[in-house]
Design goal:
Elements: H1 3-7, E1 14-22, E2 25-33, H2 40-43, E3 49-52, H3 56-65, H4 78-95, H5 97-111, H6 115-127, H7 145-158, E4 168-175, E5 178-183, E6 192-195, H8 198-211, H9 213-235, E7 239-250, E8 254-267, H10 269-292
Antiparallel strand pairs: 1-2, 2-7, 3-6, 4-5, 4-6, 7-8
Helix pairs in contact: 4-7, 5-6, 8-9
């Protein structure tokens, strides 16, 4: 009897085999491909969720989690705009006082505007790019308004005040037909986003309260790394079943199956190899107990 040939009969479904002969017994282990394995992030709790940003149905949700608008640009809410504007006013008062005072005097004399109204108009004209009309064309060291907005948005993002504080941006990498995701830092370069499920969110909130936002976000990135690794293996077909059979070979009577064990839905070849070694070890122990009985 050529047991190895039987086990390798369908090479498309069998990834690996191991055979051990012990005193007239055979322990045969097989790692087979599992075509029915479910997406682990949808099938299991405590892993979170990955939202691909090229999925039109989920695109808006994923962008919101990263604090982005529908076109993938930073979403500047009222608080971000107000904070950036306050900083701009302080810069203009410090670096362009003459132009600001001249504008205030002109607005008061010609239009009867109050001090606050004059400053608001000066700032709005500056934000609209009308530096020359404000007498600022020669001031090269003044900041760009859009850059100030972006810097304020990025500061709030890093503090966890934009979008989901625990959302982690992911970058896609392609190798042939395989696509894998990697954790990245720049939300504007993200191809997908990882978000915690209810279980992980409660845990991260507790960490944030007890140890601070930085530790919570680093923990979220660690969770995302684990989820991405599992998701990549699943998406690229690294899904297996592990089968271990203990056989007794008897002269003239053929082969008797003493014990059979199987485990399906194992994701990742390394984990499948570990499970196979573990199950074959259990089979050896069972065989020793049979002999001792």
């Amino acid at each position: 009897m050529d047991l190895i040939e039987i086990l390798r009969l369908n090479s498309r479904t069998v990834a690996d085999t191991r055979i051990e002969e012990i005193d007239g017994h055979i322990i045969a282990g097989v790692i087979a491909y599992d075509d029915c394995c479910q997406n682990p992030l949808k099938d299991l709790d405590g892993l979170g969720e990955i939202i691909e940003l090229d999925d039109r149905r989920r695109n808006r949700e994923g962008l919101y989690e990263l604090g982005l608008e529908e076109k993938g640009e930073p979403y500047f809410d009222e608080e971000i705009e107000n904070t950036a504007e306050e900083k701009l006013i302080e810069i203009l008062k410090k670096k362009a006082p003459d132009a600001l005072i001249a504008h205030i005097v002109k607005c008061a004399d010609e239009y009867g505007m109050t001090l606050d109204e004059s400053i608001d108009e000066f700032v709005q004209s500056y934000k609209d790019g009308a530096r020359r009309s404000l007498g600022l064309s020669g001031c090269a060291d003044l900041p760009d308004w859009k850059t100030m907005l972006f810097d304020e948005w990025m500061r709030e993002y890093r503090l966890g005040n934009v979008g989901d504080p625990f959302a982690v941006p992911l970058e896609a990498r392609f190798r042939g037909y395989d696509k894998t995701f990697m954790v990245c830092h720049d939300p504007l370069e993200a191809d997908a986003v990882w978000i915690p499920d209810r279980i992980l969110e409660e845990e991260l909130k507790k960490i944030r309260m007890e140890r601070g936002p930085d530790v919570a976000r680093e923990t979220a990135r660690s969770y995302a790394q684990d989820a991405v690794r599992l998701y990549n293996d699943w998406a690229n077909g690294e899904c297996y079943g592990v089968i271990v059979v203990t056989l007794r070979c008897s002269d003239g009577t053929g082969v008797n199956v003493l014990h059979e064990d199987s485990l399906w839905g194992v994701i990742g070849r390394e984990d499948a190899e570990y499970r196979l070694s573990e199950m074959m070890g259990d089979a050896r122990k069972c065989l020793d107990l049979r002999k001792a009985a």
